Amino acid sequence: MHLEVYTTLLYLLLIEGAEPTCTTRRCLAEMLIKKNLKSQPQYENCSTVIDISYLEYQTLAVDTKNLRLVSRLHATFQWIDPELSWNTSLYEYDEVSLPIETVWTPELLVTNAILIILADVVSFALPLGGGERNSFKVTLVLSFTMFLVILNGELPGDSQCSPVIRTHFCVCLVILVLSMLVSMVLTQSSPDISVVQTEPAEENTQMLRKVVNFLQALDAKEQESDKYEQFANILDKSFFWIYFVFSIAYFIGMFYVMTKHVCVINHFDFWE
After folding, report:
1. Tell me, what's the pLDDT at 201?
2. What's the rounded Cα separation, in Å, for the pair 18 and 251?
3. Distance CA 197, CA 220 (A)
4. Using CA of residue 207, residue 212, residue 217, residue 223, what is the dihedral sign?
5. Are strands 68-78 and 51-63 parallel, antiparallel or unpaired?
6. How far apart are the first and last CA of the chain?
């Protein structure tokens, strides 16, 4: 009789020890925090698929004196971490909140290379004459150069698996500089017409003759200038479409490379 009682008590103790005494949502969170999963989820190819389902960007303030931009970015990330799971028969919850410093979370790098190339494409709407287009393109090149100088300290150093984004930024800078140089050449091919003042003559006949000669020369100069301007506009439109198609093709190709590129290093190449 006593043996059966002891056996029953031992069985009850084993059952109580197998199941947690606390099954609240907070206890579930504490259980997941104790796992201390601060490393990236490890799969066969050592990569994790991150789904950005929502992205919102807002500009809050612009300080032109100190060249400072205050912005707000709201993004929703979704990824699968098999280790952050629990038994739903014990914890009947579908969601749980955890402190961000206790689990691994992806980092987001925001760049403006696509926007600055888009601004360079839109700059072709500015007229060739007057110098507005050249000033705008020079400003874009200088701004992007300063951006690369600041970003250079944030990216990893050169190695066998150097970030693809380094090549992307270099190509963007080459595109901007090439566009600026072509714009300067086309602007030089489309000269402005300037009026030259003549000194007054003593006699009316000589003055009228000079005025007629000046107007004839000015008319010939205008015709020649119109020919150069039409030729420059044709080249400008042709270069715009070439630049536009190349930019779209490049960004599509670079997007494919960034999503599919996998760097493979042979750590045993010293044996060869």
Report:
1. 43
2. 56
3. 17
4. positive
5. antiparallel
6. 76
- Angle of helix 204-260 relative to helix 113-122, nearest 10 degrees, comes to 150
**Residue 270, Cβ neighbours under 10 Å: how many?**
6
Predicted confidence at residue 12, as pLDDT, reads: 45
User: Which neighbouring-strand residues pair with 74?
Assistant: 56
Element (H, E) at 15: helix 2-18
Q: Residue 144 and residue 138: Cα distance in Å, rounded?
A: 10
Tokens 């020890």 belong to which residue?
A: 17
* Cβ 136 vs Cβ 121: under 8 Å: no
Backbone angles phi, psi at 233, to 5 degrees: -65, -40
Compute, in degrees rounded to 10, the torsion defined by CA atoms 246, 252, 256, 261.
40
Tokens 């009026």, residue?
195
Structure tokens at 256: 């494919």
pLDDT at 221: 63
What residues does 63 pair with on adjacent strands?
A: 68
> From the centroid of its chain, how far is CA 233?
31
DSSP letter string over 120-141?
Answer: HHHGGGS-STTSHHHHHHHHHH
Mean pLDDT in each 10-residue stretch from start to end of the chain (272 residues)? Answer: 48 48 84 85 78 80 67 83 84 85 78 73 78 83 80 61 73 87 78 46 60 63 67 82 86 78 60 56
What size, in residues, is the chain?
272
